[in-house]
Amino acid sequence: MSSNIAISAHCVTKSYRLYKRNSDRIRETFHPFRKQYHRPFTALSDVSFSIKKGESIGIIGKNGSGKSTLLQILCGVLQPTSGHVNVTGRISALLELGAGFNPEFTGRENVYLSATIMGLTREYVDNNIDRIFAFADIGEYVDQPVKLYSSGMYVRLAFATAISVDPEILIVDEALAVGDIFFQQKCVAHMKEMQQHATIIFVTHDMHSVTNLCERVILLDGGRIVFDGEPIDGVAKYTKLVHNERYQEKNSAVGEGAVDMTGQDDADSGWLTVSEDDRGGALEIKILKVRVTDLHNMSKETVVQGDKVVVQLMVEASRTIDNLIVGYTVKDRIGNAIFGENTCSSLQEKFSVAQGTALITYIFEWPEVYPEKYTMTFGIGEGTDPFVHKIHCWAHNIVSVAALVPGKGVHGIFNNPITSCEVNSFNSF
């Protein structure tokens, strides 16, 4: 293996035998005709990649895609069924909350225990114990049994211990999601410092952390690598996988009675059927399906500032609707309305729709907002007042998108630019 490569995986496959009951293992072992009682399950299939020293890699994928299995193989906790992994450098791994801690031991005792497992001497820990406790910031609880700790205290101590070894390779699996926001910020700042001299492998469902911390992304789906490249492109592909899964589940729940106005499969074309449960209003005009794309008619799963977002609504009107109003609201993960608009406020022209089915298309520009996932709610009304009008149909929280702000911070829900600045020197008041 090249001296510049920290980790190399070649054709790694990990398979398991799944049994309905424990007794089936014994029955299969001693069956005279070798009858099979298990169901084979492949968690990883023919996975190959290499990671250079000093790279920061994000491994992403849906639940069950094989991420944690891969990390355990890289750390040597599991052995692959076939293939091999080569690792050059001292690994420190945070695979799960408080892994390796003895609940009966105090925090101090567990630090020494974990350090011993990682091959550190007692003298090294003695010289660094104050630094570890300062980073963990759990106060007098360091000398209490960890079984009394909250989950936040667990992860503080576990992370502080893991980074204390100055590892050449740091592997973190979702562990940072438990600490409070101040501790998360401290961890991210420290990991950015470590990027100068260590290889970092980061598994998370937080796409902002991926674009903020990682130089490269590996996307797993069904135990296989389906993408290996730039973080923004990887996040976009991951979000599309999640959306397609949601489309299939949603449309399956609606059933065969849904009207197909596209002549295409909804999941492939990006259309999402709106169920009765997701609609509200007078319903003299109903939203049947929605689709969110870019200007090139490609489904839109990730957005950055300045992107043109194209909204398409397939509707059915029970009568001619004059003074038609269409609009949208974008909400954050806890349901706060962040921004939105309607055609009555934005445009001078008036719109109408005849009885029957129709396609409505409008475009808005995505502003610079905090990087996280947002949902879109779409509405249709009738009237001439942008604030007081008849609401015919609301399609609530139908589509979600991931907002990205690569390489730049957002100072709140959104950034509001400073338009001018002056500096004047003077000697006295």
Summarize the structure in short.
The protein is α/β, with parallel strands linked by helices and 429 residues long. It is 25% helix and 32% strand.
Structural summary, described in words:
- By secondary structure, this protein is α/β, with parallel strands linked by helices.
- The protein has two domains: 5-237, Rossmann fold; 267-403, abc- transporter (atp binding component) like domain (Coagulation Factor XIII, Chain A, domain 1, Distorted Sandwich).
- Helices cover 25% and strands 32% of the residues.
- The chain contains ten helices and 19 strands.
- A hairpin with a 2-residue loop joins β8 and β9.
Keywords:
429 residues; alpha/beta; Rossmann fold; Coagulation Factor XIII, Chain A, domain 1; six-stranded mixed beta sheet; 10 helices
Per-chain topology:
Layout lengths: L4 E14 L4 H8 L8 E14 L3 E6 L5 H9 L6 E6 L3 E4 L12 H11 L4 H15 L14 H13 L5 E5 L7 H14 L4 E5 L3 H7 L2 E6 L2 E6 L1 H24 L11 H4 L2 E2 L5 E2 L4 E9 L8 E2 L4 E10 L6 E8 L5 E6 H4 L9 E10 L7 E10 L7 E14 L26
Parallel strand pairs: 3-7, 3-8, 5-6, 6-7, 13-19
Antiparallel strand pairs: 1-2, 1-4, 8-9, 10-12, 11-19, 12-14, 14-17, 15-16, 15-18, 18-19
Helix pairs in contact: 3-5, 4-5
